[in-house]
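Lab notebook: predicted structure, single chain.

Context: the supervisor wants predicted structures on file for every construct in the current expression panel, including those that have not yet been purified. This is the next one on the list. No modifications to the sequence; it matches the entry in the shared construct table.
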Amino acid sequence: MITSPLTPRRTPLARVTWKPLLAGLKSLACFFVLFANAAEAHAEEEKSGKAAKDWEASKEDPRRWEFLPVPNIGGNSDVGLELGVAFGIVRFYDDAKPYKWLLGGVFITSFKDEDGHFRTVQQFHALRLDVPGLFGGRVRINTIVNFGRNVIARWNGLGNASTLEGLPPGPDRARQGQFTSEQVRLRSVVRVKTGTPFDAAFSTNLRYEFPSIYEGSKIQYDAAHAGIPGTEPAFLTTLATGFIVDTRDNEFAPHRGVYYQAGIGGTVGSAERVAYGETFASLSSFIPLGNKLTFFNRVVASYQFGRVPFYDLAQGNAFLPQAMVGGDRGVRGVPGARYAGHVKMMANYELRSTLIPRFRVLRWKLQVGNTAFLDLGRVWNDINSSASDGKTPGIHYGVGGGFFFQWDRTSVFRVEMAYSPSDHPRNGFPLSYYIANGLTF
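Prediction complete. Output recorded below exactly as produced.
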C-alpha cells in the first residue's frame, strides 16, 4: 500500500442549509407515493393471480433438477469485457418453495482498454448456497463467499456535487479518481418465518478489505486532510437485523407481489477505529398490467453514521450491500460508485414485457423479454452539512432499456443500454451498456 506523503490536517465540515436535502427527499417521496397508490389499486388483481399457476409450472416435474453450466460473457461500461464461467444447480422437490436448494457460482475476469492498453482490470469469483426449507420450512439460509479485485475502483469524494477539481496534480492524472479495491467476504442472511407476512431477518458479513491507494489520488488526499478511514487493511464484521416481506410469485423474474427489506446494522473494524451503524429500507413492488406486461418499482434509502470506511459510503443495505447511485444494480447510466455519502436514496421504475411465448432450446425452456426503465438517485454528505452536496435538488438519473433471457426458472441474463448525463468520463458520450446475470431487482 502507498502511504500518504501529505501532511495530515483536519478541516471542519461547513454547516449549510437543509433545503437541498429536503428538496431531494420530497422529489423521491412523490414518486414513492404515486406508485404505492398504484400497487394498492392492483391488490385485488394480485390476489386473484396468486391462485393461478402458469402453464409451464403445471407441466414441470415437481422433483426435477436444473443444471446450467455456461461460459460467462458480459461486462459493462465501467469494467469492460467480462469473460469466465458460471453455473447453477437447483433441486426442486414437491412443494418446496422456491426450490429445495440452490448452488451457484461465477468466476470472471474483466478486460478494458486503459490508456491505449487492453489489460485486466477486475476479478470476481463467488459461490452461493441457498437452502430455504430448514427446520420444517421455517428457516432459510442464503450464504455467499466471494473474492473481488478492481484496479479502477472509483472514489471522487463525498457528496452529491463531489469533484476532482482543485486536487493537487499527481504523477498519474488518470488515477486521481481511482483506487484498487480488494476483498474477501463471507456473507449470510437468515430468514425465519413468524406466522405473519413479516419474516425476521438476521445477517452477518465477515470480510477482509485491503485496498491500495494511488499516489496523488482523491482518497489519499481525503484520508490525509479530512480523516476519512479505510485506506488501511482491516478485518470488518457486520451484524444486522430487521424484517423481510416477500410475496413474489417468482424470485428470478417476478410478475406480481412485493419484496420489502428494512433493518439496522452495525459494523466494527480492526483498523482506523472503524465503527458505524446503518438504517436502511428497500421496497420493491411488482404490478401486473395484464399477462405479458409488468410494472416494477423500487425505493431504497440508507443512512450510515459513525466512522464509515470510504469504500462503504457508496453502498446501502446491510443485508446484501450494493452500490446505489451508479452501476448496473443502482442508477444505471451513472458510473458505478460515482457518488458517495452518509445518506443515500434511490428509486427505480421499470416496465418488463414477455410478448414472445416460452420455447425450447435443446432441453431448456427459454423466455425472451424486453425492459424499459427510469432510475433516480441522490446522496448527501451528512444531514447537518451539505457544502459538498450542491444547492439544487441534484437528482441523478438514467433512462434506457434492453432485453433479457430466462432459462428454465432460475437463470436470467440481461443486456441493457442507459443514457445519463451525470458526470460521464467516457469521451463525453453519456451512454452505458450492461451485460449481466440476473435482473436489476
